[in-house]
Design brief:
elongated; six-stranded mixed β-sheet; Tyrosyl-Transfer RNA Synthetase; five-stranded mixed β-sheet; alpha/beta; 412 residues; Structural Genomics Hypothetical 15.5 Kd Protein In mrcA-pckA Intergenic Region, Chain A; Rossmann fold; 46% helix
Length: 412
């Protein structure tokens, strides 16, 4: 299968500046770049999909440049609704380093070159920039860009600082074309106008043909919501912002409508294997086999095999009657941090714990639950209302009422 075919099947391609995608990715090996501004000290899932596209391109022999916007990050790409708050150079520099480390880890052994556009933007002479670059842009073109047009239509308007941002991104592409022979830029679909501005600038100044590729915004088909900070549901790649367990749960909760799409975008599983997973999932959707595979693969890719296995074990205990005795100390801590808990001070009856933990509203109701076979302690079904719970120091065990109601009992 050609790379162009695989990228389109996986859903990576939104727009491109060529007659065919084959012309860009299936012919001569190219130098391809993607840029990210340090608007935060971590990337999120919306960024990650583009990073995976870079990995596919690198695996197929293309040279990849990863640009972190130490310069453009001090300006800010125009948002459609509000002016960005300017960030201090010190904070921008800190974020640049964190993003670089994160990208290096996630892109793995692929040949990726990292650059910071502050290295050239920080040296620009304003007069030279306006004469040599600004003259190739018209205000008529700039005000047609979606974010700028929206801002101009509102009461707040837009500052010249943000208005000039497309010129800086275009200049980045020109610089990388000159210094590295870069001839393809990839980005999110919301960056189409800025990327094409770079293609046009290089054509006018260097008389060269370069290309642009954009990736669709990732959207949950069930809710219509996209991944991203602006939606308030950002799933961060930084373990301190989104823990591996919460990260795993996010992917595990993927809707049935989107799970196959996400397997294609967010994993390196072969298309043939994904098709097999799809058939199995459609045969037995209640098993959530596709979601489990997705969550395991993506968590392993981002946080490593050990973190993924821990997340799986904790999840099994919480939602699939797993055995808590197999957990090590760090996994127990994850369990206690992410589940309802009840501390056992001394030996106590199951009936009292059901009431005191909120799993039953009264002792009478607790006895009814027990007599109907709805109460399980660990993996053991409890049949006696006077059953004594004995827990040693440092121990924990799930107490369940039915399939969905539970607490984790623990003793310090």
């Amino acid at each position: 299968m050609k790379l162009s075919e695989e990228l389109q099947i996986r859903g990576f391609i939104n727009q491109f500046t060529a007659e065919t995608l084959e012309e860009i990715v299936d012919g001569p090996k190219r130098t391809i770049y993607h840029g990210i501004d340090p608007t935060a000290d971590s990337a999120h899932a919306g960024n990650f999909v583009i990073w995976l596209l870079l990995a596919h391109l690198a695996r197929n022999g293309h040279a990849v440049i990863f640009l972190v916007g130490g310069g453009t990050g001090m300006i800010g790409d125009p948002k459609p609704d509000v002016e960005r708050t300017l960030t201090s150079p010190e904070i921008v520099a800190e974020r640049v380093e964190k993003l670089k480390v994160q990208a290096q880890k996630l892109l793995g052994d692929n040949e990726i070159q990292f650059v910071n556009n502050y290295d050239w933007l920080g040296k620009l002479n304003l007069i030279d920039f306006l004469r040599d670059t600004g003259k190739h842009f018209t205000v008529n073109e700039l005000i047609k860009k979606d974010a700028i047009a929206t801002r101009l239509a509102g009461e707040q308007g837009i500052s010249y600082t943000e208005f000039a941002y497309p010129l800086l991104q275009a200049y980045d592409y020109l610089t990388l074309s000159r210094e590295y022979g870069c001839d393809v830029q990839v980005g999110g679909s919301d960056q189409w106008g800025n990327i094409v501005a770079g293609v046009d600038l290089i054509r006018r100044v260097e008389k060269k043909t370069t290309y642009a590729i954009t990736v669709p915004l990732v959207v949950d088909k069930a809710t219509g919501k996209k991944f991203g900070k602006s939606e308030g549901n950002a799933v961060w790649l930084d373990a301190e912002k989104t823990t591996p367990y919460v990260f795993y749960q996010f992917w595990l909760n993927t809707s049935d409508e989107s799970v196959v799409d996400y397997l294609k975008l967010f994993t390196f599983l072969p298309i043939e294997e994904i098709n097999e997973i799809k058939i199995e999932f459609q045969t037995s959707p209640g098993s959530r086999s596709a979601q489990k595979k997705l969550a395991a693969e993506v968590t392993t890719l981002v946080h490593g095999k050990d973190s993924a296995e821990s997340a799986i074990k904790v999840s099994d205990i919480l939602f699939a009657n797993g055995d808590a005795s197999v957990l090590h100390s760090e996994e127990k801590e994850i369990l206690l941090q992410n589940a309802p808990t009840y501390e056992i001070i001394s030996d106590v009856t199951i009936t009292d714990v059901l009431v005191n933990s909120g799993l039953a509203s009264s002792k009478r109701e607790a006895r009814t639950f027990i007599e109907s076979g709805a109460v399980t302690l660990g993996t053991e079904k409890i049949e006696l209302s006077e059953f004594q719970i004995e827990l040693s120091s440092g121990g924990l065990i799930p107490l369940r009422r039915g399939k969905k109601n539970f607490v984790i009992l623990f003793k310090k």
